[in-house]
Amino acid sequence: MKSNSNLPPGFPGHWFLGNGQDYQRDPLGFYSKLKKKCGDSVTLKAPLGINWFLFFHPDDVETILHKEKDKFCKPGFFVRSMSYLLGKGLVTSESKLWKNQRQLLTPAFHKSRLVGMASLMTEETEKLCESLIRKSNGKVVDLANELQRLTLRIASLTLFGADIEKHEKEFGYALDIALKHLNFRFAFPIYPPPWIPLPENIRFRKQLKVMDKIVYSLIALRKNGELDKGNDILSALMKVKDPDTGRSMPDKQLRDEVITLLLAGHDTTSAAIAWTFFLLSKHPQILSNAIDEIDGNLKSASPRFENLQSLPYLTMIFKESLRLFPPAWGQPRQTLEDVELGKYIIPKGSPLVLSQYITHRHPDFWENPETFDPERFTQDKEVARHNFAYFPFGGGPRICIGYQFAMMEGPLIIATILQRIKLEMVANQEVIPDPTFTLKPKFGLKMNISKRV
Ligand code: HEM
């Protein structure tokens, strides 16, 4: 091992708060500045003298997520904050529980099941288009908000089937509050735990109860003989048996997994689709090429799973949007032992962050990184690129389980909307990324909507 006399470079920061204030003010701007001034490996000084480390080079991303994955786990504070909502679902579990659950959940995302979900995605998007045209023809709509509601509806229906419909409003509201609470916790990591009766905590716990009641009632419904009727993910998870014990998944574990899938599965995808529409609005030629591809292949038929293969340009656009505005813009880890990363030895127990937002703009791997250019995703170029220069869905064994779901849902929703609606971005609005739990347009995305003729 090399000597650890020096850690990666960084900015000195405040004696007590470290770089905390610079980070809080503008996380993405601060990361970009650090990359420019300090290079690919950076020491970030958190309050109380704790060192965090940032790694931007794809080689390090590959080491951390893939080659030496067993030397890393998710940081304690991250898991703690998330688990207030997600319990021990797939995002927050580790070691044996994670491995076991990942194995049990994987078949629910098999391609054969995804095909069945595609028509639901298109149908729900068609309904949204009709309602937008009916209600909003010529009026301004916050497309980011509409897309979030759409992907939540799709995620709820694929997870719970039609049984969720009567609880949809209540559930959506509760999830929204819970998500805001998580964002709040990430902004104020030292905020007391939920059982301390503070107003923010009381609000969160109230909505948590609402969600739990609904999820447990849906589980009970299935247990009372509805199990075989359902083709949703909840039914699929209730049917699986642990190969070691032969037992079904306990109710609490089921609850944790479905809430995890619901949260991870809707907010990220809607953000990605919103950014795609933003970028298309800024690049009329690319938009026009996309519409030509869709119209040429589908005429006016609804997009189906089988059509995605004949819409390669649309998929390239979606991938490029995920490069520039990755919904998961940072991925935290912690070292389980001293780890050698490049010329540094990072001590055991250190928190570190990988940032898709920065690595996806790394000038050694992306020419004119700020330019929106879907041609970067031709097959040849993808094959030639470093495997970890682009990782919007993470990588290694903990790669996003919903990766194929999202890569189907995004293009299907975009194609359906482009077929039916003309979108024009309202001029002079501020569209800036808001790096909270997911990277979303901070003030939404205001669009004028009209029916395509
Ligand atoms: C554009 C959409 C999406 C993006 C950008 C995204 C991104 C990610 C990333 C980066 C990770 C890795 C996190 C880590 O290892 O620290 C992840 C994990 C995960 N994602 Fe996604 N995701 C998306 C859509 C979905 C969907 C649609 C679902 C479910 C229906 C989903 C469920 C999950 C779950 C359960 C995990 C944890 C997997 C594990 O640790 O085994 N995601 N996602």
Short description:
The protein has helices at residues 20-25, 27-38, 58-67, 76-86, 95-105, 111-136, 143-160, 168-187, 199-226, 233-239, 251-282, 284-298, 312-324, 356-359, 379-384, 403-420, and strands at 41-45, 51-55, 72-73, 140-142, 331-335, 339-341, 344-346, 351-354, 421-425, 433-435, 439-441, 446-451. The chain is α+β, with helices and mostly antiparallel strands and 453 residues long. The strands form 4 sheets. A 5-stranded mixed sheet has the order 1-2-8-5-3. Strands 4-12-9 form a 3-stranded antiparallel sheet.
What can you tell me about this protein's structure?
- Helix 6 packs antiparallel against helix 7, helix 8 (168-187) crosses helix 9 (199-226) and helix 9 crosses helix 11 (251-282).
- This protein has 453 residues and is α+β, with helices and mostly antiparallel strands.
- It is 52% helix and 10% strand.
- It has a domain at 1-86 and 329-391: Cytochrome P450 (Cytochrome p450), CATH 1.10.630.
- Bound molecules: protoporphyrin IX containing FE (HEM).
- Protoporphyrin IX containing FE binds next to helix 11 and helix 16.
- Protoporphyrin IX containing FE is lined by residues 90-91, 102, 260-261, 264-265, 268-269, 272, 327-328, 331, 392-394, 398, 400-402, 405-406.
